[in-house]
Specification:
With about 325 residues, this protein is of the alpha+beta class. Helices cover about 30% and strands about 30% of the residues. It has nine helices and 18 strands. The strands form four sheets. Strands 2-3-7-8-11-14-15-16-18 form a nine-stranded mixed β-sheet. Strand 12 and strand 13 form a beta hairpin. The chain is globular and about 55 Å long. Bound molecules: adenosine monophosphate and magnesium ion. The site of magnesium ion has 7 residues, from helix 8. Adenosine monophosphate binds next to helix 8.
């Protein structure tokens, strides 16, 4: 019931795949994991191993499965695990690089808003202030493979786990000699090689204001593309709109003037996932400053005032010519 409920919005998720030429011999693996609907498009039978890997990661990293390692950590237990320790190291590096905009210790605040389940509510300001005392990179201690959290602290890997999973899919497909394929883990995309006719994979960036429309199409090969948007999970109460991407500086849903952020990288889905969440929180100016400072990725930012900003690395890969919409497009150098 719960899963079916989520399936419908997820199918309309951030990055929609445009089917078409080159896909006639494809086989599809469709499944539901990490709270989203997933699809592999492949031309051989490498789908199974990658699906098993995602289910393994879900069992490890889920916050809502009681027997996961993350749940053990969140109950206050010490956990010894090489992979989890490494992923938390990366998470902390993104927290530092984004001035705290990406922070997996936001978990207690995400729960207070009800975004961990489906019982949404608006927490009182003093409740949020008290919870924010338990948020911050210093709440996580890593010694070798051993991880502990400060008392009362919790983690939520919802902003990075699917990106990490897409990196694992890429590794598994590389090891298996898969030449071409596309993994859509909700709004986290990994595309390998080209379509069978040699053309690039076409990934549309959803219009955050209209699930049936898109702001443009990315033509990609050997790339990761991840979108964060308020439209993925939200509710309205007393006429006010609340969504699932929380600004760790305030405890409230980010209100940065952006309505969606897409990050594209040829190297890392983990980076795309963490930075799409972070840039959504940071807003236009700080997101572009981060792009200039770190480099190695590109951005498509959609602003609340109707602009689409595309960083220069995507200039030849982003096509808005068929998007019938009111946006003003700008290439950022
Ligand atoms: P994404 O869709 O990748 O932007 O991730 C959003 C999810 O990450 C939310 O549903 C929360 O589980 C979690 N989250 C919310 N705010 C943050 C934040 N500021 N930093 C890290 N994770 C967050
Ligand atoms: Mg993310």
């Amino acid at each position: 019931m719960h899963k079916l409920h989520r399936l419908i919005p997820c199918l309309a998720a951030a990055l929609l795949l445009l089917c078409g030429c080159g896909s006639k011999d494809a086989s599809y693996t469709d499944f539901f994991a990490m709270d989203t609907s997933m699809r592999f498009t492949l031309y051989d039978n490498a789908g199974l191993a990658a699906k098993e890997e995602i289910l393994r990661l879900e069992a490890l990293l889920s916050r809502t499965k009681d027997d996961s390692l993350v749940s053990a950590l969140n109950r206050g237990e010490a956990v010894e695990d090489t992979e989890l320790a490494a992923l938390l190291h990366k998470s902390l590096a993104y927290t530092a690089a984004t001035d705290g905009a990406f922070d997996v210790t936001i978990a207690p605040v995400v729960s207070a808003w009800g975004f961990t389940g489906d019982s949404y509510r608006v927490p009182a300001a003093d409740e949020l202030a008290a919870l924010l005392a338990q948020v911050g990179g210093e709440q996580i201690s890593i010694h070798g493979d051993s991880v502990t959290l400060a008392e009362g602290a919790m983690i939520d890997l919802g902003g990075i786990a699917k990106g990490y999973a897409s990196d694992r899919v890429a590794e598994i497909w590389a090891e298996a000699g898969v030449e071409r394929g596309l993994a859509a883990l909700g709004g986290n995309i990994y595309c390998r090689g080209t379509k069978t006719d040699g053309s690039l994979w076409r990934v549309s960036v959803q219009d955050p204001n209209d699930p049936a429309a898109y702001v443009g199409i990315l033509s990609l090969s050997d790339a990761f593309a991840v979108t964060s948007g308020a439209y993925e999970r939200n509710f309205t109460e007393n006429g006010k709109f609340y969504h699932h991407i929380i600004d760790p500086a305030t405890g409230y849903p980010a209100d940065s003037g952006l309505t969606s952020v897409t990050v594209v990288s040829h190297n890392s889905g983990t980076l795309c996932d963490a930075l799409s969440t972070a840039c959504y929180v940071l807003g236009e100016e700080d997101a572009l400053a981060l792009w200039r400072k770190i480099g190695g990725f590109d951005l498509v930012l959609v602003t609340a005032d109707g602009r689409v900003l595309i960083t220069e690395g995507l200039e030849g890969s982003f096509d808005s010519s068929s998007a019938a919409n009111p946006y003003v497009y700008e290439i950022i150098h």
